[in-house]
Every structure is written in structure tokens, then in C-alpha cells.
Amino acid sequence: MNNVPTPQSRASVLLHVCCAPCAPHPIELLQQQYRVTLFFSNSNIAPRDEYLVRLQHVRRLVSIYHLELIEDEYDHTAWLEHVRGLEDEPERGARCVACFAFSLRRAGEYAAQHGFDAFTTTLTVSPHKATEKIFAVGQRFANFLPLDFKKQDGYARSTARARQHHFYRQEYCGCEFSQKRHRQSA
Ligand code: SF4
After folding, report:
1. Which of 45, 88, 104, 178 for mutating ligand 1's site (highest number of atoms within 8 Å of CB)?
2. What is the pLDDT of residues 132-172, one digit of tens each?
3. Atom of ligand 1 nearest to the CA of 174
4. Distance (Å, rounded) from C-alpha 14 to C-alpha 70?
5. What's the DSSP call for residue 9?
6. Is the full-model pTM beyond 0.90?
């Protein structure tokens, strides 16, 4: 008798995806154990044109990996309201924690409402983001999988795939405050 789980019998995971270049390693790792669906929920990104370019490359990513993509509503006004008072915080500070909470709440709620066994996020692959802060936020919501995708050279693996597939790589994290800092330091 063969006890190897079929793809249909595997647990399902909703993977919040921040952008195409970060996603390949998390997808490839999760696919060894789970049925993976991507969730693009990134109302932090500004301006809207930048959001659309990143989304377009995530659409290419899902066609390469043959995955389903859920595209959440883009509501940058609500995101700005959510981080009000934290505009001058440095990257990796309180604004970023609030930013993670905005997107991960939406991912967690979508996962719960649609019967996913778990949810997680590609955000941990980035060396610019503190994994423990992402975990602390994710664990506020039910069925969060705390996976540190930086491990096993995760960032380098994702970057290599991103080059291979010519995914757009952004020059700043996402919001207008990170864009301003990038311009000032350029
Ligand atoms: S710098 Fe990045 S993580 Fe921090 S608030 Fe802006 S978009 Fe979010």
C-alpha cells in the first residue's frame, strides 16, 4: 500500500506574496508538502503604477508555476490611514510592523473564510525584514505557519530564479516613505 499523499490529499496553504522575485524559493519549498495558492495583498505599494507592475510579474510567476492567484483589493488610502502617525519611522520599525499586520490580517481572514489549512508569507525571505517581527504579527491570526524562508539560502535561491525568469525587481520596499528614503540615499 502506498502512503505517499497525492497532491489532492495534501494540506492547503495560502501564501501571501509580496512580489515575484521573493516568491520562487517559498513556492518551491511549500510545494513539497502543500497545495499552494498565492494571495497578492499589497495595499502598501505606491504609486499605483508600481503596484500594477509588481502584480503583472506575479501573474507571470503563477503561470510559470501553474498556481492559482487570488488578487486582493488595492486600497492604499486605507493602508495610509492604518499607518497614520508612523510615517517618519525608519524601515524595520513600527510602521513596517503595522504594514505587515495590514496585509497578514487580510491573508489570515481570507484563509479562514475559504477553508485553507494554513497561511504564511514570502516576506520572511528578504534579508531587509526582521523574521521575528513578521512571526509576531502573523501569530496574531489563526493557522499562521511561521516559516523563515531566509534559511537554506532562500533569498539567493529566489534571486537566481528571478533572474532566470526576468522578474521585475523593485528599487524600494513598497510605500511612498520607503521610496522617498531610497531617492534621498541614491
Ligand atoms: S518600508 Fe516596506 S514594510 Fe515598511 S511600511 Fe513601507 S512598504 Fe511596508
Report:
1. 178
2. 999 999 999 999 999 999 999 999 999 999 999 999 999 99
3. 7
4. 9
5. G
6. yes
Domains of the chain (ranges, CATH numbers)? 10-185 (3.40.50.620)
- Evaluate whether 142 touches 112 at the Cβ level (below 8 Å): yes
Q: What share of the chain is helix, strand, coil (3-state, %, to 5)?
A: 50, 10, 40
Pick the atom of ligand 1 nearest to 178's CA: 1
CA 185 / ligand 1 centre spacing (Å): 16
Task: Note the pLDDT tens digit of each residue in 34-69.
Answer: 999 999 999 999 999 999 999 999 999 999 999 999
Closest CA to 67 of 96, 128, 109, 26: 26
175 ligand 1 Cβ < 6 A: yes
| Amino acid found at 18 | C
What is the average pLDDT score of the chain?
95
Alpha-carbon span 47 to 41, nearest angstrom: 15
Amino acid at 176: E
